[in-house]
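Sequence, please.
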């Protein structure tokens, strides 16, 4: 559903409710980790979709480049960033599977964000290394992806997962150990892990997916009054119910200096 007219009328808050019911959760997770930047600080949004996180980061003062392969999504992203007041966001068409080929982006960004993307790619290590390559020394990676322990919101969330990339998930998700290993292999230092999208958010998402079988507009309007509840209630309900969070969040850092080679090592 294209709610660009609503975004033009109401601005950025409307962008947070235009589609996926968990977008608001992810933005709140991201915003807490995006302090007001120094002048000229740069941010790369890898797999930016229709640009909501790019626009949000630009509104906080970052100079943002959003990358995505889909021309239609990028057109929507440009329009919505303009409506949201995110004039510091620009967008380029890029298949992120080949991000490492962009020599012009190497060590060009103080912050790289990659939200709910890595689970769509077979070569997750290749992506992680490309993300690290775009960071300046001392820069930060902020990444979310489905939590390996999450309970399926829809039947397809449980697999089976395709052996080829078709736009959907190619794996269920990740745990802390898997993300630590990806960081280690990409030369990044994990700093913190956290979670978002709890019990209520997942139940509302399930409801919306069911209702959209009738129509997209019907599903969107029916769950709209419920969208404000998860940020308030999920931090309380999810731990009490011992319910797995849907997404795991990673904060990682690129070392200022490369790790010292072991004494006596040879090429």
């Amino acid at each position: 559903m294209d709610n660009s007219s609503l975004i033009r009328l109401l601005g950025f808050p409307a962008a947070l409710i235009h589609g996926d019911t968990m977008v608001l959760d992810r933005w709140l997770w991201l915003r807490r980790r995006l302090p007001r930047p120094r002048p000229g600080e740069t941010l790369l949004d890898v797999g930016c979709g229709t640009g909501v996180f790019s626009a949000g980061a630009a509104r906080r003062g970052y100079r943002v480049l959003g990358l995505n392969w889909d021309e239609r999504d990028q057109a929507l992203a440009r329009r919505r960033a303009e409506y949201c007041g995110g004039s510091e966001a620009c967008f380029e068409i890029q298949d992120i599977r080949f991000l490492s080929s962009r020599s012009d982006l190497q060590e060009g960004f103080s912050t790289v964000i990659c939200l709910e993307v890595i689970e769509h790619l077979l070569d997750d290590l290749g992506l992680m290394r490309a993300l690290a390559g775009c960071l300046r020394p001392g820069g930060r990676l902020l990444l979310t992806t489905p939590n390996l322990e999450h309970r399926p919101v829809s039947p397809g969330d449980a697999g089976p997962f395709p052996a080829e990339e078709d736009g959907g998930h190619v794996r269920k998700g990740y745990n802390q150990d898997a993300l630590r290993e990806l960081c280690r292999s990409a030369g990044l230092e994990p700093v913190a892990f956290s979670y978002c999208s709890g019990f209520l958010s997942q139940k509302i998402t399930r409801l919306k997916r069911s209702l959209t079988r009738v129509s997209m507009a019907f599903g969107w309007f029916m769950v709209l009054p419920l969208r404000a509840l998860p940020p308030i209630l999920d931090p309380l309900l999810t731990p009490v119910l011992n319910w797995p969070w849907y997404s795991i969040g990673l904060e990682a850092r690129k070392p200022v200096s490369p790790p010292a080679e072991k004494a006596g090592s040879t090429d």
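The beta strands are 42-46, 63-68, 89-93, 109-115, 135-146, 189-196, 247-253.
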